[in-house]
Amino acid sequence: MPPTSAAVLSASVAMVSFQIGAAFAKQLLPVLGAPGTTALRLGLSALLLVAVQRPWRSVPSRTAWPWILAYGLSLGAMNAVFYVALGRIPLGIAVAIEFVGPLGVAVWASRRRIDYLWVALAAVGLALLLPIRSGAAALDPLGVACALLAGVGWALYIVFGQKAGRAHGPTAATWGLMVAAMLVVPLGVFDAGTRIVDPAILPFGVGVAIFSSALPYTLEMVALRRLSTKAFGTLMSFEPAIAAVAGAVLLHERLALLQWLAIAAIVAASVGAVKGERPERLTERADFAP
């Protein structure tokens, strides 16, 4: 499979996996709260990846550590504020608002005029996708603010993740996840207490950890190392659409015709951006294949 096709496939599977995990995680929020759910997800994810990848066999170099630390901190902060938002506003709306981060990365990294057309089309789709439920003005202000902060964290995750992946390879995801876990687990344990290790909760936590972190972040690291920041950022426009579908199927959030049209616009924008990736840039990314 060509490097760009493998990267696109990796990113697509990662997005589907993440939204399935997010839908399940939203059901844990009433029990554990946002800090506890975040800690359970990232803590178990880090343990799973450490057991599978044994990252101590490839310790980051001194030059790679700054990027891995930045990647891990942005990852932990992004997840923490996103779960606060998820507890207050619907899944599809939270992800759509959060998408201002990767969309901003796509605009910043763009070099051709036609790229702005794809970004504009994605923005139109997102604007149509936002009112999943009537009365957008009634959305919880703190939830919206946290979703916007999560968008900032997502943008930093893209930028730092790409640099960390190039500096250290695929196990950069594991090292970054360990940094994120060390940031959020103490806060989650302090907030949720013994509920976080309840035997009735742990199986759901393992499922969330696999679908929301261990699998998607590893796959995204593969994509980040093969696609330009512009292509990866715009490709992430699939995320709100997949979140809306996951919300409809798993959380019973109804979608109107306007939202389906928004999904079509976002998909078209993403395909256009990926097809516009320059061959010479793709060749450069193939040099970083594992």
User: Regions with pLDDT < 50 over 5+ consecutive residues?
Assistant: 279-290
Mean pLDDT: 78
Major β-sheet annotation: none
Global outline: globular
The count of domains is 1
Return the structural class. Answer: mainly alpha
How many DSSP-defined strands? 0
Residue share in β-strands: under 5%
Helix percent band: over 70%
* Rounded radius of gyration (Å): 18 Å
Structural topology:
Layout: H1 3-53, H2 65-86, H3 91-98, H4 100-109, H5 113-129, H6 141-168, H7 172-192, H8 202-224, H9 229-235, H10 238-250, H11 257-275, H12 279-286
Helix pairs in contact: 1-2, 1-7, 1-8, 1-10, 2-6, 2-7, 3-6, 3-10, 4-6, 4-9, 5-11, 7-8, 9-11, 10-11
Please give a structural write-up.
With 290 residues, the protein is mainly alpha-helical. The protein has one domain. 78% of the residues lie in helices and 0% in strands. The chain contains twelve helices and no strands. The chain has helices spanning 3-53, 65-86, 91-98, 100-109, 113-129, 141-168, 172-192, 202-224, 229-235, 238-250, 257-275, 279-286. α2 (65-86) runs antiparallel to α6 (141-168). The protein is globular. The model is unreliable at 279-290 (pLDDT under 50).
